[in-house]
Amino acid sequence: MAGMSVPSPAIEQAPAPVPAPLLICEHCDTVYRRRPLACGETARCARCDAVLERHQRLGTNAMLALILTAMLVFVEANVWPIVTLGLNGEKVATTLWGMILAMWHEDAKVVSVLAAATLFFFPLAKMIGMGWLLLFARKGQRAPGFRSLMVGLHYLHPWTMSEVFVLGVLVSIVKAHLYFEISPDPGIFAYAALAVLITIFAGVDLRQLWETLPEHATTEPTE
Amino acid sequence: MSALPRAHELGLIGCHVCGLVCRDTPMDDAACPRCGSALHRRKTASYARTWALLIAGFLLYIPANVLPIMRTASLGDVDDNTIISGVMELWNKGSPDLAVIVFTASILVPMTKFFVLTTLLVSARRGSNWARPQRAKLYRLVEFIGYWSMLDVFVVALLTALVQFGIFSLVAPLPGVIFFGLTVVLTMLASMSFDPRLIWDGRTDDD
């Protein structure tokens, strides 16, 4: 990295957490003293205007309820067909997995894998991971595998695309509408609901769990 | 020291994964004491990785646009669609609003990403003071819009699964859609590899 020289003292010391309540902007490295946020408040960086921290409106229980709802909707979105096309009395309906398999058989395996990952496996992993963490967080505990799950969810975050898929279904319906009779099936409503739920819990900052759940702790439930 | 001290001025380092604030250390392979991720002041090899992924993404974006992405066949009448011809079809057949959405997702967003990331890479490397807050905003914009480009890929996939009426009507994916899907993934990886802190690492601080 250009222009960065660190003086090297004789003893190499391991990095130690700073006890003061500090916060570093992820976008520009500006250091702030942290202060508690009031309801609805958002702290922004004075240098680059990125969001530093948001007040978390939802408690652990509310978040868990949200995740469980999302899981139910997710099952529905995957079981029910999404749309039905009709031509000369013949009808074809498909589900998400119908679409993934169709792409696989049509030799677009890359697309098939991308769709399976971003629309099925990643959202599923995200919901299960968050659900697991929150289930224990309710009791003020760190879930088994807490550390690797928190890191994993951090990397998984940008790769769930259910909301893009909802728009994709809309575009497909309009395109197919020109040539076929078309009827939306329950699956698409489940997807729309899922997109909304995922958008809500995308705003949930799980990082707070690092602080609210101390290591090796058997403390009282934190709110 | 400026009114807004930056981490390295105070001898601090923030974990990029969990946000823990640590005392800086000369160790090369330091790990975050809280989450175990590698601690670094800036993302590793940010310029090289971002350039590599961006150029690879751009190279794949060429066949993604030139090659057809979808074949529609009905009663022996075969029609191969490229990204842009799909947009024009939507426009002409009565849904200009959706045509605008697809155009934005498939053409405007990827082009914006190439343009913005190139600008950011060049200006940050030169240590430019020019329009820093605006460049920081542009980066966040690129991060936010990145994955919406996947729209056309999902449209092709869904139509392929649905339009299966034998000789009357068939839709099949063509290689263009694979290149396009890969472009989206590569440009997403490129914007993740870019370290926005570099925007502020110029020769002189402006405040």
CATH domain topology of the largest domain in chain A: Butyryl-CoA Dehydrogenase, subunit A, domain 3
CATH topology term of the largest domain in chain B: Butyryl-CoA Dehydrogenase, subunit A, domain 3
CATH class of the largest domain in chain B: Mainly Alpha
SSE arrangement of chain A, N to C: EEEEHEEHHHHEHH
The shape of chain A, in one word, is elongated
Strand order across the largest sheet of chain A:
6-5-7
How would you describe the overall organization of this protein?
The complex is a heterodimer of chains A (223) and B (207). With 223 residues, chain A is of the alpha+beta class. Helix content of chain A is 48%, strand content 12%. In chain A, strands 6-5-7 form a 3-stranded antiparallel beta sheet. A two-stranded antiparallel ribbon of chain A has the order 1-2. In chain A, strands 3-4 form a two-stranded antiparallel ribbon. The longest helix of chain A has 29 residues, at 109-137. Chain B has 2 domains: 1-41, no CATH class; 45-200, Up-down Bundle (Butyryl-CoA Dehydrogenase, subunit A, domain 3). Chain B is built from 6 helices and 6 strands; from the N terminus they run E-E-H-E-E-H-H-H-H-E-E-H. Chain B is 51% helix and 11% strand. Chains A and B meet through strand 1, strand 5, strand 6, helix 2 and helix 3 of A and strand 1, strand 2, helix 2, helix 3 and helix 4 of B.
